[in-house]
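Checked the freezer inventory, then went back to the computational side. Two predictions to log before the end of the day. The first one is the construct we discussed on Monday; recording sequence and tokens without edits.
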Amino acid sequence: MENNHVIEAIDLSKTYLIRKKEQGIVGSIKALLKNKFNEKEAVKNISFTIDPGEMIGFIGPNGAGKTTVLKMLSGILFPTSGKVKVLGFNPSDRKSGFLKKISLVMGQKNQLIWDLPPIDTFHLNKEIYEINDDEFDKNLKELIRIFEIGDILDQQVRQLSLGQRMKCELVASLLHHPEILFLDEPTIGLDIIIQKKIRQFLKIVNREMKTTIILTSHYMDDVKEIAERVIVINQGSIIFDDALKSLSKRFANYKMVYLTLNKEVPKNILSKFGHIIKYEYPEMVFKVSPEKVAETTFFVLKNLDVDDININEPELEDIVRALFDK
């Protein structure tokens, strides 16, 4: 593709027609005689490019258009208007050459065959994607190592835990070595430990297999741990597209200071140290501008009986909230 982009979207839009019906029996009769529709613009003239090997987080509230974008990029949905190229293909054409270069994993959709062991789905995908024996054996061995599933290959899928199934879903999606992996809520419903492991596995996949990863998630830890760049979408429009670290600088220009005190202090005295977020003795949390961190830390240690102190970046949830507020 031109400029080496693996994805290029220009003025991409998607509008749905939603059937309109009045309430009651009369409304039902009218609907039978004449259908009326409302238009809902899910995605509004968005433009962006993605380069090989990038890890992108698409974030935004429910109904913002994240999943609709992923479905258009993977060819499941036709755009209403605009242009999109993925690896040089028009996704909507769903050509074999295109499908062999991408994969889409949706956290609430299963591709594993419920009554069979995962290894059977893996062999089925081998035939679907026309993977030769040597490549299949090499890829499967590599993915079993990365996702640590060697002991569950022959168990019925229905007997696996949700975390085990998600690992196998990802393996099934990566067997053909796709150049792009689309992930829609990949850790939904998983416990914290498995969520963390899935994130680690995805970073290994990106590093070792050079796979471009585009992720949507409501879990900000997914985005923080996986994505190097974020695209924030709200009401169908992109409101931010840049490196993750610049999101904090632009919309949450402060540091969080966490204190554990040895001696209780009246709250009105503590207010001079910064904007207090929480004070429940012995714990105190306040925020301070980056340029005043050193001065404030010195002042705190000098005037308070401090057992422990930590200075951190603000939480990603708070940054995104600040972005929407602005």
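The second is the one RB wanted added to the comparison set:
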Amino acid sequence: MIEIKNIEKSFGDSKVLKGISTVFETGKTNLIIGQSGSGKTVLLKSLLGIHTPEKGTISFDGRIYSNLTADEKRKLRTEIGMVFQGSALFDSMSVEENVGFPLKMFTTKTAEEIKKRVDFVIDRVDLKEAHHKKPSELSGGMQKRVAIARAIVNNPKYLFCDEPNSGLDPKTAIIIDNLIHEITVEYNITTVINTHDMNSVMEIGEKIIFLKQGILAWEGSKKDIFKTDNEAITDFVYSSNLFKKIRKAQNKEE
């Protein structure tokens, strides 16, 4: 579980995050949504320790990040997996080299132990035939699978995903959504996803927080969206063609 309390973050005279408090639950896919400039990316980077909030606290299973020693922060980082928007794979490395990179850099595992773990996670994301291929030989969806395998290779407690469906066709995006959700449940990970994809909201939105101009304007599940009278979230989600179709279908049933 990740708990944030009264987070504030500014850049110069511009306050980007304005007293945000929420809980990201373990074993669930927690989504951060909102328009461009709403503070989604700044919040994600604050969770990752890239930005330091001026006020408030971020706790990882009771450990307040700002209170940790340098060694404790390094240990916490080994418990975090990250899926970047552009996959961020090393072009010169094969799939198995990319996936094994965190183990070689941050653990003392033997070559045999690394090979065993790398084989396992590559199989888990259904890339059995791609071990020795380079990223340039893979489709966008396959590259995302490699990125997910690399993110989970070190058995993280926390998984962060920045726009994981960016650049993917709708069918592939759903496959990636479902894979992230399956892994989250299977390994009981606290997963936080920064997304603008309304399909992701409907596929895997177990906990959703909606940011508007740096404020947490709404939170709930994908089911709660259809019940809420909160104008901030309804104005945002019903600008999506997907949600318009769903609402139209619901009105017909009623």
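For RB: The two ends are 38 Å apart (CA to CA). The mean pLDDT is 89. Let me know if you want it refolded.
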